[in-house]
Fold these 4 entries.
Entry 1:
Amino acid sequence: MAYEAKNRKLKDWVDEVAELCQPDAIHWCDGSKAEYDRLMAQMVAGGAARPLEKRRNCFLFRSDPSDVARVEDRTYISTPSEDEVGPTNNWIDENELKQTMLGLYQGCMRGRTMYVIPFSMGPLSSPMAKIGVEITDSPYVVCNMQIMTRVGTKVVEVLGENGEFVPCLHSIGAPLEPGQEDVPWPCAPMEKKYIAHFPHENLIWSFGSGYGGNALLGKKCFALRIASTMARREGWMAEHMLILRLISPEGKRYHIAAAFPSACGKTNLAMVQPTIPGWKAECLGDDIAWMKIGPDGRLYAINPEAGFFGVAPGTSYQSNPMAMDTIRENTIFTNAALTDDGEIWWEGMGVPAPDHAIDWKGRDWAPGNDDPAAHANARFTAPAAQCPAISPDWEDPEGVPIDIFIFGGRRTGVVPLATEALDWDHGVFLGATASSETTAANIGAVGKLRRDPFAMQPFCGYDMADYFQHWLDMGDRLGDKAPRIFYVNWFRKTADGDWLWPGYGDNSRVLAWMCERIEGKAGATKTPIGNLPGESDLDLTGLDLAPENIRELLRVDAEAWRAEVPDIEQHFAQFGDRLPARLRGQLNQLEERLGE
């Protein structure tokens, strides 16, 4: 043991897990660079990690092909009654699931070291921060958690003798018998993978997977699924949102929290570099926002994470130059391709494909191969502090006051470039009906419309109808100090399949309009679906856009929206009587406005 924990509940839990899982050794993580370096050297020696010659302190991992992403169909919310979790979550009875998983955990760490990772979600001095402790048998998880959270002895000191923490138990589920040789990426077969949440106990158990959100339990498991249930009980918000500061030419700061489903440019917007003259932007977080009402009645947000766990394919100096600069050093890459000169590569990186590479499965690869060189969900794990666009206030313990909420999705038609909600309830309706067309990175047929309310459908730890009600309740509490709500769609296309909007840094033009709407400086036109900017309300200086493209981006097709209503009705129907009446009323009002 590196140090003595004073928290009796923590010590008892560690002893209990050790007795159950039977590791060969126990290591209490101190979060130091020496610890990180030692574990990484150990994984290099064992063949799990490869140092990248072209990038300082960067390493490449290749996962088992069966263990490449979050497994939503093996992710469970476990409560005494099924009606608590709603139609969008997988449910198993608490006692049944615990019995199954206790059987799997029995002796699962034999031949391995059990690591105890005390971590803080949020700056340790923040009143919004929460402490977790992850127990794992994966050194890969330890190193990633060091980047993604605040790990170490200071966390245990803050915990003290009686502090509360969220217990997070993880095992890759691959014990080693004496003399048995390990593999580079140990994990259990799919049928033995479980990612389980017990919200009544603020408890997380994960078994069988070593990848991403299945194993880095501070991320989606704690920061969203468990935190969302805590937030509802305690009167705050845990959201799948980036946090961005936009600074006007006059120096006024605006803080934006935005939620988008996967493959909709969330990380790109979090690190946006405005093309509109005089405006600047700073990144405060790329994935998760925890928000509480402050003494002044406004909503304040912190980023509970300390790093970025980003999708690599498609990340380039065109799409996200700040991310590319962030990952130059001190980064863990997983399932990218390796070039012959010791560099990483992925599709959409913005540089020519190498003549030869080793793909994410460890096979020879060359341009023209049927399979991609990097997995579609290949990742980078990098410290947020080294992002050139990071705000100097990103670790402010009090958080930043949110002025604007944005929802959005990927739609080639129907949904305009930007819409302002008519009021808070209408904004909640926009979030509750958020939709996106699936891409190759999603499960299911390409181009199929999926509703992903608030971009939270895979991450809400309780019935989403009750989650909608929580948003309405928060709006009631905030009153006239509530953030303004907008909806965006960067992904409109022409009939020929060309993009109508340039996107990337030019999205700042839409953000600037939102800020100017708050100040009463920008106009808008009231339509049946909300307030839209007119052609003269957006600053399009320097953009070479055809006038007909702008008109199409800002057009409301009433007939197409009337065709949208049955799909929204079907989406709402799944929630039955739990759906807030105020949202049913919003749908009725939309139909009435479309009929006028």
Entry 2:
Amino acid sequence: MTTIQSLNDCDAAGFVDALRGIYEHSPWIAERAAARRPFASLAALKLALQDAVDGAAPAERLVLLRAHPELAGKAAIAGRLTAESTGEQAGSGLDRCSPDEYARLHDLNARYNERFGFPFILAVRGPTGRGLTRQAIIDTFARRVTNQPADELAEALRQVHRIAEIRLNALLGAEPALGALVMDWAEQLGAVSDDESGLTCAYMTPAHRRTAALIAGWMEDSGMTVHVDAVGNVVGRHAAADAGARTLVTGSHYDTVRNGGKYDGRLGVLLPIALVRQLHARGERLPYHLEVIAFSEEEGVRFRSTFLGSSAVAGSFDPALLDAVDADGTSLRAALEAAGHDPAAIRAIARDPASLLGFVEVHIEQGPVLLERGLPLGVVSAIAGSSRYVVELSGVAGHAGTTPMAMRRDAAAAAAEIVLLVERRCSGNGSLVGTVGQLEVPGGSVNVIPGRCRLSLDIRAGDDALRLAAVDDILDGISAICARRGIDERLWKLLEIDAVPCAPRLMDGLGAAMARAGLPRFDLASGAGHDAMRMASITDVAMLFVRCGNGGISHNPLETMTADDADIAGRVLLDFLKTLG
């Protein structure tokens, strides 16, 4: 049987021959990767092969893409595919397409080749390696044929690497069992929703309570002592032998946005449960208590108040929030009581900081940085601070046909210039990002110069000095634009949250575990808010990001990841837990 050791020990020709078929008709990839031996792990081998492709000339990468067959194309029908491609296409039922499906795929193949100049490439075994349905393949095909050429070229190469990853797993007998378990659990949770058209799990709804029950059951099955606290957090505890030991907390949230994805938050709950399951099966204990908390609310969907679960643990829950009401007029207090919780007991949830070793959160990145770098994992350096404003611009409405351009006081034109100012000021500055997410012309008409305009500003960065300097420049710029255009401005600050730096000792522990797994350490800031922000008020925090697929999209049904990435995240986290000093 082929092993990493046998691949390290054989000569270059033997190495290339052993990996023949991993990349379609492209032995040059293995030839170039051979110089990187010895490989410490399968993950290191995968990265070396990937780097060989990424370092190739554009023409070589194009030849690689064109070496792949069309899905259910003429070569497949004629039986002229490699054994690997034949098995993969048959595994997803592409050899059993209906006449309508064949016609649809034929049309998509033709459109795709005409647009991009290479065949459509998809790892048809999918995120779990078990195979996509024909309908899922066709839906993905139809979506990607509309991509921009540069974006699709990058995605096609990523799919080539995913195909190679699955083939390498088969060659070396590597089964990402832990990752597959996490993916299976996420699928089960994803089937529990407030509505039938997508995944929505809002605070204290029936779907939310069923989700909590599933999580509690998996915790119990994994050997943890479990309780659901007064705010709805599901808490599982894997106790140390020493009852007086301190506690390391891990976890994330299990609520979702409306029509959200299956892995946001939930990955950080399910992965540590799966690890405790392993520890319990082997009769192992850590030298500290490990607490896995499935935080009940982070997204703010129902009561427009975020971080309810982690705020309670951190001792910063605001009792005034109990009087907040949802769209139907139900108060938060009433929702808790209807679910059997005692709002008066929320204060007692708060943890004693002296009892804690830290908080570590695993989370999908919710962005494209790891994906574009070809890395499964990243160490979060800081969670970005945020400054949010609403800006109201007042000019003069006038007739669109009779007012000369030089005499206009156009509020929308000023807003457009402000949008470009934000984009320009926040580009190329590390973790700094700026967004105008809302832009409206109240009462606007097609033949009237806009007299009023409202827009939002959201400025974020992992470094507060960087963010605040950008805010100052943007606000000064807005004033200058309005003065030059004769526009009156009014501005309201909605939010000011400081950045949360991650603890270097915990970051280093994660980075060292990644290195031992054969992965390079890569640090990045989180632009999104996380429960770790609240936990940072009582203990050191760290985060491990896991790569997203589909361009890094999140808060969306297209949100995805792979069992392989979940599996290596689990191995890194377990190594970190066992070596934490």
Entry 3:
Amino acid sequence: MKHPPRLPPVPAEAGSSPRLDSVRQALRLRVLRLMVVIAGLAFGWEAPAPVWGEPSAAAATPDQSIPVDPESAPETPSSGLGLAEVVAMTLGHNPDILLQAQEVAGKQGAVQQAAGPFSPQLRSGVVKSRSIRPLTMRDRFGMGGRTHLPTTTTNYQIGYERLLRSGLVLRPRIEFTRNDPDLPGLIPENRGEVKFELICPLARGRGANAAPRANEDAARLDLEASRRTLEAAVQRSLFQAIDAYWSYVGSFRRLEIQRAAEDRARRLVEETEQLIKADHSPASERSQVEANLAAKQADRISSENTLRQDRRSLGLLLGIDAAAIEGLGPPLDAFPEPASLSLPVDLPPALVQETLDRRPELAELRLQARSAARLTAGSRSDERPRIDANLTVGYSGLDESNRFAAYFTPLSQRLPGLNVTFQVTADLPLKNDQAIGLRRQREAQEHKLAIALERAERDIRTGLTLAWRSVIDSLHQARCSDIAVRTYQSAVENEKAKLANGMSTLIDLINMEDRLTNALLSDIQARVNLARALNSLQYQAGRLVRRAEEGRPAADRPAPGAPLPPPLPPEVGTARYAVDLEALRTVASATAFPPTEKLP
């Protein structure tokens, strides 16, 4: 389709204003566009329909959620690193998400390719030939004894062909032929013919299960499945990035504890040295406190190395370069507080069913199964014999003239009547091994997808149960470690008082501080485990992100047995996902999982 020509600028008339000129120009453009649309409808051009699943510009974003656009995602946080930056950079730069987005773009091209057989085609051609035909004895007598007749033939035609999705084929055609004998006195024959041909398949290629129609439907379903795969990649990448973020937070907090322990050990060395110089402590205690300081320095160095490794792991998941990884700031988000969390002991059955409805992996497999079923139906259709009914209706005209206009006037001269042709053609293969073999392959693919779907449902059910129990156990662990920290803090204060009163030794104080440090480290690990368990529960429940269409009523969303989505436009937009940061930081049972029985 040719684009409409640009209108030349309209010269300003006397007394006209620039605003009036712009209004006239806009009206002319609207009229021209309307004419183009009407012409397109007359020739059968179809406008692309909207696609289910594409986010709309008017989609509302709920409170406490951030819609993340990859183009607007920050490269690196300016100061510190929080969950908001982690989510934004993951959606914008994670390689797995970007790769899967290209897979979606490729599937979009596959849909356009599968719709190719239904695209209308214009066929035209011009042929000019010269032939020398030997004449019979009777023709020789009429032509003065000539033995042959040289003839110049000019043929030009234009036709339109379109395969409908029902299987019918439309072929209107106009053809002109001019036979110009190369002899004096003979008048050229100018013949014109109009034909409208309709081909109706009676067996193979008919109806909704014809191979071209089934292939197009399967391509659309594969595209929708690839979008669910993209959503699964987003969920998985966010889960990994948030999991790595909490590990990074834990490493940072452990390093702070190790540095504080090293500072305490250094102060103890200085205080002990002063006591030794004042003859209040024996010199043998110097080796104990120095050994304690060296051990704390070794632990601090190990924690720094662990922090660097966790920073690198997080940076790779965020998709940023090496310089940006080294520039990642300290974490800004605190661990979830165990005291603020309350979950049911038993997994709610409603959550299991909701998870099965939300997980994109299951939606992907269901769409792939529907796609495989459509391909199998197309293969069964190809096993049928080829029987076509062909109806051709048209008329012919003749104009015997040497004028140049005779090239185009035969269709209005000497029209004897309507020409009708009806024929039935059959192609009956004795054994269609190609179609049978393809059908068996696609049936096996259907069975494989059914097995994969059953296994995926089982994995998700067990994974959700395990994630739920992990949160319960992590809550118990975090509360116990919190009690241990408070108890050891009191014990250290008591040990310092006993040492000041001569009721304890320096080694007892060092041992008690070591126990406090280990309790603090265990408490950090317990909080890391709790944060990661909550993140895993969100991931297993399919709640890390929400698609834009989830805000629509359920009646507007296609069910597994609903009709196929409409044809897709050639563009592939990057989807936007809404992420609830508060749900990532805490899982408050009052808003997410209504409790039936709280933990003690």
Entry 4:
Amino acid sequence: MKVFLYDTTLRDGNQDRRISLSLADKLQIARLLDHFGFDYIEGGWPNPSNPTDEEFFQKIKEVKLKHAKIAAFGSTRRPGVIPEKDPLLQALVKSGAPVKTIFGKSWDLHVTDVIRTTLEENLDMIESSVAYLKENSEEVIYDAEHFFDGYKANPEYAMETLRAAENGHADFIVLCDTNGGTMPWELEEIVKEVKKRISTPIGIHVHDDSGLGVCNSIYAVKNGATMVQGVVNGFGERCGNANLTTIAADLHFKMGAKFFAAKKIARLRQLSGNVDQIVNLPSDPHAPYVGDAAFAHKGGAHIDGVMKVSRSFEHIDPHAVGNDRVFVTSDQAGGSLVVEKLKAIKPGIDKKDPVVGKLLTLIKERENAGWHFDSAEASFKMLVYRHLGMVQEPFKVLGYRVIEDKTTQGVSVSQATVKLQIGDKISHQVSEGDGPVNALDAALRKALLPFFPNMAKVKLDDYKVRVLGSKVASDATVRVWTTFGDEKGYWNVVGVSSNIIEASWMAFVDGLTYKILVDNKVIEGAYKHLDVKPVAPVVKEEPAPAKQKKLTKRQVKRAAGL
């Protein structure tokens, strides 16, 4: 059985009270999700009141996705309004997304007391909305909101809502445990019943209010669901959504399920960490499979057992998801994975080489101080290349200064001065910016540009600051994480200091040095894929004749005004 993974991090995950994704965040996460191999990426809810999502659907058309289909999310038409006149359905069509996902009411309580219409009108809202979008989309997915609560309250009506979506020719009907309160044994019996009475492929969408999001999703697949909707790392409203990171691993390692992203499962930890970094939240050390503590062993008996037979205390090989075992008492965290990365940089290096041991110690010291190399690959490479003596610095920093002034008109002015040595030349430049960090970035580029013309193509795509540890006063240690990009790709760097300007400076210097070394082919294979292509010119063609579809009884009645 093949399973389709449908990610809703950009919409449902964004409803987490700690998260507010920018357009740049959404585009960057979409690239990561596609690169990992998710089948569907739900971009958001396009409508005039949500300009970020509207712009996302236009910008994502410029990104060359390798596999994923983009889905736009919305609801059925409003009571008493035909689909052709409903503004939310029109916004879905206007988005141009190949897949449209809409939710409708399955619980009679919601029909009569929330949207306040008749049970029959709700059925027509579902069927007519799905049918209309089916005529204007490659694929339509119907999310049966509050289905399990609705089924427990009125099973026959809940099933009628699914039949209405089926009559509208939905490609998938997804059963939603929107309140997150259904128990696994209840869900299993209801899914079995749905499979008996609905021929359309079904999916599952579970919230985690009872801590059962992953469990219920797996039970649904076991009983015939072929689509799983969820969120990377389980972000979401209230207690969050089903954690698609854990679900993907469970499907692969525990159920042997077939899904496209299975071949990238060894990058699962990297995906999880990268998404955490973009949403600017600390990673959960106890997250199954991908957390720092997922394969950490502290007790002496456990460590002894793992060293003798790893599977005696580990349910899978941690390397299978890109993680590593940690022996807390022996202080040997992450060694084997780092050695593998070193071999990729310097083939033939012996892990017994003393320089490797010194480098492992340095990396551990940096990570303990707050450097996070899993999501800052460029910083990791710079550290290794420098420590192994494989690079010559393209420039030397002689000094920098940032000045903040406030004019008599109350306007703040940031000015940065940077002094560099490039060969036997001195470059001394001054720039102003919207803030001290912006001014510093501009001055550094300005100083480098006469010697390295490609600096003109580099953009700072993302910049995030996180306070580290329990010390949260103004003198706390901070980690600055940045993403630089140009027409060739993008790369991530990190800086750590108790001084936010210094941390930013570290990241900027590493980020631009990295670019110079890559362009000079000192560092090979350094860019991440960006896959952006110019928008193709519009070629007008004669529309193909529309296929005649057989109308359902309800559609015939509606057309006749009955």
